[in-house]
């Protein structure tokens, strides 16, 4: 008899439905290898929840996520909801879910597939060894600080957002970075802006204390502006990058360029509650509804879900190998297409992956 696992699927907006449906098909086929069957529970968040319920994160979605073994999410937001009140913007759904589920850590692996080395805008010799993980703090910092929308008039009109970090928030994310590094090449790069920001100075102090207490791991410390440059001049130097919510958000999109496309990168958000898996990109309104989005970032997020939340390691290995095989065989969505390759849409890439499982 198969073991049943409940996974909440949140399509969200834009390309969300297209990529989540692709990943669900792949997972359903792969988990058979682990004698597992997935019971998918669809719930709404983001713009689609605003349209249905008048708010981006209904309690029913939160409750379902808390009870499930994992959550697979597409992306939320889009121009349709750009003029809604700040308190109910679609992005509040993502932030709210992360907070409600206690997901203080976002793991964003950045690697370069052999078949895609020539797709990176960087020189081949710079990208051949690229394989690092961004460990992004996810429930603190400026995204969760107090803010004030614009008020006042004329040149004195002002708005502000506050960045706060507590010692315990920094300690627990650095601990995860250290554990991650111990399973990899043993190097942590802590990224901050300690030359200017008080919150970054506390970040660096805590990182240095952790470094002293963990001599098995090598630490270095970079300012975020230098890191942004190092990511494109020498990305092979990185093993584990640990940084704040805002800096991690920005640096991971830059990492995606190194790997060839934003559509390729997966993520896992972990912490105290049900883990959530989502690609690092957004809802891509410019290509939504056309069936051309690259589903691989979501499919690879689903592989992480199989490995870390569903106890389906054979499925995880099979999905990752199938993605590699599909790329090696030349299948390419538009974002990674080059002359001579097999151009496919979302459906075609999904079929290509399925055939190798
Ligand atoms: N986790 C989430 O739900 C996130 C939501 N957003 C929201 O998404 C909306 C659009 O934001 P943007 O800044 O345009 O960022 P985006 O990541 O949605 O798109 C940036 C560019 O990358 C392309 N792209 C993204 N994913 C792709 C894929 N799978 N295949 C092929 N091309 C892909 C898009 O077509 C676009 O040209 C906004 O409402 C934003 O707030 C943005 C980032 C994360
Ligand atoms: C709502 C945003 C913080 C989402 C985002 O850009 C991300 O998590 O990468
Ligand atoms: Mg982002």
From TrEMBL:
<keyword id="KW-0560">Oxidoreductase</keyword>
<dbReference type="InterPro" id="IPR004429">
    <property type="entry name" value="Isopropylmalate_DH"/>
</dbReference>
<feature type="binding site">
    <location>
        <position position="98"/>
    </location>
    <ligand>
        <name>substrate</name>
    </ligand>
</feature>
<keyword id="KW-0479">Metal-binding</keyword>
<dbReference type="GO" id="GO:0003862">
    <property type="term" value="F:3-isopropylmalate dehydrogenase activity"/>
</dbReference>
<keyword id="KW-0460">Magnesium</keyword>
<keyword id="KW-0963">Cytoplasm</keyword>
<comment type="similarity">
    <text>Belongs to the isocitrate and isopropylmalate dehydrogenases family. LeuB type 1 subfamily.</text>
</comment>
<feature type="binding site">
    <location>
        <position position="225"/>
    </location>
    <ligand>
        <name>substrate</name>
    </ligand>
</feature>
<keyword id="KW-0100">Branched-chain amino acid biosynthesis</keyword>
<feature type="binding site">
    <location>
        <begin position="78"/>
        <end position="91"/>
    </location>
    <ligand>
        <name>NAD(+)</name>
    </ligand>
</feature>
<dbReference type="InterPro" id="IPR024084">
    <property type="entry name" value="IsoPropMal-DH-like_dom"/>
</dbReference>
<feature type="domain" description="Isopropylmalate dehydrogenase-like">
    <location>
        <begin position="6"/>
        <end position="353"/>
    </location>
</feature>
<dbReference type="GO" id="GO:0051287">
    <property type="term" value="F:NAD binding"/>
</dbReference>
<dbReference type="InterPro" id="IPR019818">
    <property type="entry name" value="IsoCit/isopropylmalate_DH_CS"/>
</dbReference>
<keyword id="KW-0520">NAD</keyword>
<dbReference type="Pfam" id="PF00180">
    <property type="entry name" value="Iso_dh"/>
</dbReference>
<feature type="binding site">
    <location>
        <position position="253"/>
    </location>
    <ligand>
        <name>Mg(2+)</name>
    </ligand>
</feature>
<comment type="pathway">
    <text>Amino-acid biosynthesis; L-leucine biosynthesis; L-leucine from 3-methyl-2-oxobutanoate: step 3/4.</text>
</comment>
<dbReference type="GO" id="GO:0000287">
    <property type="term" value="F:magnesium ion binding"/>
</dbReference>
<comment type="function">
    <text>Catalyzes the oxidation of 3-carboxy-2-hydroxy-4-methylpentanoate (3-isopropylmalate) to 3-carboxy-4-methyl-2-oxopentanoate. The product decarboxylates to 4-methyl-2 oxopentanoate.</text>
</comment>
<feature type="binding site">
    <location>
        <position position="249"/>
    </location>
    <ligand>
        <name>Mg(2+)</name>
    </ligand>
</feature>
<dbReference type="GO" id="GO:0009098">
    <property type="term" value="P:L-leucine biosynthetic process"/>
</dbReference>
<keyword id="KW-0432">Leucine biosynthesis</keyword>
<feature type="site" description="Important for catalysis">
    <location>
        <position position="143"/>
    </location>
</feature>
<protein>
    <recommendedName>
        <fullName>3-isopropylmalate dehydrogenase</fullName>
        <ecNumber>1.1.1.85</ecNumber>
    </recommendedName>
</protein>
<keyword id="KW-0464">Manganese</keyword>
<feature type="site" description="Important for catalysis">
    <location>
        <position position="193"/>
    </location>
</feature>
<feature type="binding site">
    <location>
        <position position="225"/>
    </location>
    <ligand>
        <name>Mg(2+)</name>
    </ligand>
</feature>
<feature type="binding site">
    <location>
        <begin position="282"/>
        <end position="294"/>
    </location>
    <ligand>
        <name>NAD(+)</name>
    </ligand>
</feature>
<dbReference type="GO" id="GO:0005829">
    <property type="term" value="C:cytosol"/>
</dbReference>
<comment type="subunit">
    <text>Homodimer.</text>
</comment>
<feature type="binding site">
    <location>
        <position position="108"/>
    </location>
    <ligand>
        <name>substrate</name>
    </ligand>
</feature>
<keyword id="KW-0028">Amino-acid biosynthesis</keyword>
<feature type="binding site">
    <location>
        <position position="136"/>
    </location>
    <ligand>
        <name>substrate</name>
    </ligand>
</feature>
């Amino acid at each position: 008899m198969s073991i049943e696992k409940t996974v909440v699927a949140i399509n969200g907006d834009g390309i969300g439905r297209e990529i989540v449906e692709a990943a669900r098909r792949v997972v359903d086929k792969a988990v058979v290898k682990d004698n597992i069957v997935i019971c998918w529970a669809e719930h709404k968040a983001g713009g689609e929840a605003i349209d249905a319920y008048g708010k981006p994160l209904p309690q029913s979605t939160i409750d379902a996520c808390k009870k499930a073994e994992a959550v697979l999410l597409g992306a939320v937001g889009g121009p349709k909801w750009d003029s809604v009140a700040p308190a109910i913007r679609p992005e509040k759904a993502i932030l709210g879910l992360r907070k409600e589920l206690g997901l203080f850590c976002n793991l964003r692996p950045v690697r370069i597939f052999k078949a895609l080395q020539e797709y990176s805008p960087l020189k081949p010799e710079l990208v051949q060894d690229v394989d690092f993980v961004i460990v992004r703090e996810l429930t603190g910092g400026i995204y969760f600080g107090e803010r004030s929308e614009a008020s006042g008039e004329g040149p004195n009109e002002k708005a502000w957002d506050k960045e706060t970090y507590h010692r315990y928030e920094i300690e627990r994310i650095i601990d995860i970075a250290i554990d991650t590094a111990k399973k990899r090449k043993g190097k942590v790069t802590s990224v901050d802006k300690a030359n200017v920001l008080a919150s970054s100075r506390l970040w660096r102090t805590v990182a240095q204390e952790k470094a002293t207490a963990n001599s098995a791991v090598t630490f270095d410390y970079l300012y975020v502006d230098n890191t942004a440059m190092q990511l494109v001049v020498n990305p092979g130097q990185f093993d584990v990058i640990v940084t704040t919510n805002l800096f991690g958000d920005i640096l991971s999109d830059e990492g995606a360029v190194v790997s060839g496309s934003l559509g390729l990168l997966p993520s896992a958000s972990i912490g105290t509650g049900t883990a959530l898996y989502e690609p690092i990109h957004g809802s891509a309104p410019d290509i939504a509804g056309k069936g051309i989005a690259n589903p691989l970032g979501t499919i690879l997020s689903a592989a992480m879900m199989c490995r870390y939340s569903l106890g389906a390691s054979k499925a995880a290995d099979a999905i990752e190998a199938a993605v590699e095989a599909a790329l090696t065989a030349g299948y390419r969505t538009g974002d990674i297409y080059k002359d001579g390759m097999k151009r496919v849409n979302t459906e075609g890439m999904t079929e290509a992956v399925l055939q190798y499982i």
